[in-house]
Design brief:
Blueprint lengths: L12 H18 L10 E10 L6 E10 L10 E5 L6 E5 L10 H12 E3 L5 E4 L6 E3 L8 H4 L8
Antiparallel strand pairs: 1-2, 3-4, 5-6, 6-7
């Protein structure tokens, strides 16, 4: 029997299929979403179907690659029932509940409110200790002790 050159077998289709499977395996190995140490496999299956006279054999060649599956993604959900509407609420749990302020939001809001434009277009500011609004051009701002009114003693 003569040796078969697998590079030229089936018009080069076998080599092409094996190279494609090798490409899939190498891409899967490099994919960070798969387990690095998982085993990958390429299987070539030759199926032979001879005729009744046994002088002609039809053959089919199947090349399959077994790859590592993608890793799962972990998350958490919170759920509950709305007391008023009796509807079930189901949301992804994050470090912050939707609509809830965190300390960075408060800092940003305070920085934005510290310098804003008045209705006349002139720049305004406020005293963070009392909340009093003043013109930014004013040089003199009264001390906070002069601005605070003790309502317990002001009866």
């Amino acid at each position: 029997m003569e040796k078969i050159n697998l590079e030229e077998f089936a018009g080069g289709a076998l080599a092409e299929k094996i190279n494609q499977a090798l490409r899939e395996v190498t891409e899967n190995v490099q994919d960070p979403n798969t387990k690095a140490t998982a085993k990958r496999k390429i299987t070539c299956t030759f199926t032979f179907s001879p005729n009744e006279q046994r002088d002609l054999v039809a053959a089919s060649i199947d090349v399959k690659s077994t790859l590592a599956p993608s890793l799962g993604i972990a998350t958490a959900f919170v759920m509950g029932k709305d007391i008023e509407t009796n509807e079930v609420d189901f949301r992804e749990y994050t470090r912050q509940i939707k609509g809830q302020l965190n300390i960075n939001d408060i800092k940003e809001a305070a920085e934005q409110a510290y310098a804003f434009q008045g209705s006349s277009g002139q720049s305004k500011g406020y005293d963070p200790s009392t909340g009093e609004i003043y013109d930014a051009e004013e040089e003199e701002v009264l001390e906070s002790a002069d601005k605070v009114v003790n309502l317990r003693t002001a009866r």
